[in-house]
Design a protein that fits this description.
The chain is α/β, with parallel strands linked by helices and 334 residues long. It folds into two domains: 147 residues, 3-Layer(aba) Sandwich (Rossmann fold), CATH 3.40.50.720; 120 residues, no CATH class. It is built from eleven helices and eleven strands. The strands form three sheets. The protein has a seven-stranded parallel β-sheet, with helices on both faces. The termini are far apart.
């Protein structure tokens, strides 16, 4: 019998990757969403607004696995999980490493404490929303809940604007402000590796929490930016710039310069995780060069204008600010 998968959402970034992987396995895929964006081909489309909640379209259905990527009010996960508890075998909640209490030391893993949150929370920040969503999934499904705590997610269809911004900037060429140190570790997960892990783990009957990013040492900031130069064929010149020089110019890590965090607590918390549990459970991490190349190929196919999530800010460094910093550095080194 073919595995039956229910994807809650399915039209953004992670959802389509899960659908692609499931269809490649020969699974039967159903999606529930509001229908505001096109549904991937080859799936059964059900309509419902989970914030109402509009879950009646799920009545009568039975699925082996459900994948939920919701990142706002935990009450939505609470109501959905409760509605599906007798209709779904295993509930996968795509969570985030943001659920952990800050700051996380280098080497922390799934045993590190998470923020206090409740399935009944409604208006909370991202970390508490994800922690509350986890609590909702576990409350309803217990040992049938799988918590996929993703870190930085990159790859084709990215709708946050991190890797697409770097590819676009480097494709324009010229001197590029490259944030140092160049050999700082970067932990990320390719969206397709995330999708493969959650479907494999669900099929194997796994439960509990898994931190899903590549291991420390898998990639550096230099690896990411040099891969962008290579795949775009650009004549861009990476000008590696010290973190203190960047901060002195008022440039913000993570938002003005996506992906990058300077050495310190924030970098350790995001890029210093021990992911041995997920690796032992089958997480496979493709080379960063493949993630960058495939993201560039996708950008080319869609005309170079990636989608932008409406609930996230537009990322990237103002060209005038970049030019001023590079010009000042050039004068000081002359």
């Amino acid at each position: 019998m073919r595995t039956r998968l229910l994807v809650l959402g399915g039209t953004g970034f992670v959802g389509p990757a899960v659908i692609d992987d499931a269809q490649a396995r020969g699974w039967d895929v159903t999606v529930l969403n509001r229908g505001s964006r096109p549904t991937p081909p080859g799936v059964i489309a059900l309509r419902g607004d989970r914030t109402v909640p509009g879950l009646s379209a799920l009545d009568g259905g039975l699925w082996d696995v459900a994948v939920d990527t919701w990142s706002a009010a935990p009450t939505v996960v609470r109501d959905t999980a409760a509605h599906l508890v007798d209709r779904v075998g295993r509930y996968v909640y795509v969570s985030s490493r943001s659920v952990y209490r800050y700051p996380m030391p280098v080497g922390a893993d799934e045993r590190f404490p998470v923020v206090a949150a409740s399935p009944d929370d409604s208006d909370v920040d991202y970390s508490h929303a994800k922690a509350g969503g986890e609590a909702a999934a576990v409350t309803a499904f217990g040992g049938r809940a799988l918590l996929a705590r993703a870190g930085l997610i990159l790859g084709p269809r990215e709708d946050v604007g991190r890797l697409p911004w770097w590819l676009g900037r480097i494709a324009r060429g010229g001197p590029v402000l490259a944030p140092g140190p160049p050999d700082a570790d970067i932990q990320f997960v390719d969206v397709r590796d995330l999708a493969a892990f959650v479907l494999d783990a669900a099929a194997e009957g796994r439960s509990g929490a898994y931190d899903l990013v590549c291991p420390v040492g898998h990639a550096t900031m230099r690896d990411v930016l040099e891969a962008c130069v290579a795949v775009t064929g650009s004549a861009a010149e990476l000008r590696w710039t010290a973190p203190d020089r960047i901060r002195a110019a008022g440039i913000e890590p993570w938002t003005d310069l996506p992906i990058w965090l300077p050495p310190g607590e924030q970098h350790d918390a995001l890029h210093g995780s021990d992911v041995s549990t997920a690796l032992a459970a089958g997480l496979r991490c493709r080379p960063v060069t493949e993630t960058v190349a495939d993201t560039w190929a996708w950008l080319q196919r869609i005309g170079g204008h990636p989608p932008q999530r409406p609930d996230r800010p537009v990322l990237g460094l103002d060209p005038d600010v970049e030019a001023r910093v590079l010009d000042a550095d050039g004068r000081s080194s002359a």
